[in-house]
Amino acid sequence: MRSMKTALIVAASMLTGIALGGIGVHALHAQAKPPAYFVAANEVSDMDGFNKQFGAPAQASVKAHGGRILAADKGTTLAGNLPTGRVAVLAFDNMDQLIAWYHSPEYQAAQRIGEKYAKFNQVAVEGIQ
User: Fold this and answer.
1) Does 58 share its domain with 95?
2) Residue 111 above 80 pLDDT?
3) What is the pLDDT of residue 1?
4) pTM attached to this predicted model
5) Using an 8 Å Cβ cutoff, are 38 and 122 in contact?
6) C-alpha to C-alpha distance for 92 and 38, rounded to whole angstroms
7) Which domain holds residue 15?
8) In whole angstroms, what is the distance from residue 124 CA to residue 109 CA?
9) What is the pLDDT of residues 52-86, one digit of tens each?
């Protein structure tokens, strides 16, 4: 009889722990910030200079700040009049991380170099959770 009572107490404790854990995970998930994306459609006047002088330091700054390069190449316009040149899509864990990267000394130095070779058109957008 005593072992049955002990088994019920253990089972009830386990179920309570699982329920509380599920509530905690749900609460943490609700507090998570959505991912953020950086999209650039740049008008490049000197592709060789842009790739050689801007590309490497810009990519290194993205990686150093926890970002990921999802796409970087010439785009295919489907509608409208986008600039010809280079399109890049970057992903960051959240908008705070993206903004910190964008204003970092490393990226700002790369951007100053890139401005010799291109006119930048850039936007940041939060993803959908």
Assistant:
1) yes
2) yes
3) 58
4) 0.73
5) yes
6) 8
7) 1-32
8) 19
9) 999 999 999 999 999 999 999 988 889 998 877 88
Residues 57, 100 within the same domain: yes
Tokens of 72: 């970087």
d(CA 36, CA 67): 10
Together in a domain, 60 and 108 = yes
* Packing angle, helices 105-114 and 56-64, rounded to 10: 160
Residue with structure tokens 């150093």?
64
Number of domains comprising the chain: 2
pLDDT digits (tens, 9 = 90+) for 29-39: 556 899 999 99
Helix then strand count (H, E) for the chain reads 5, 5
Q: Is the same domain home to 75 and 104? A: yes
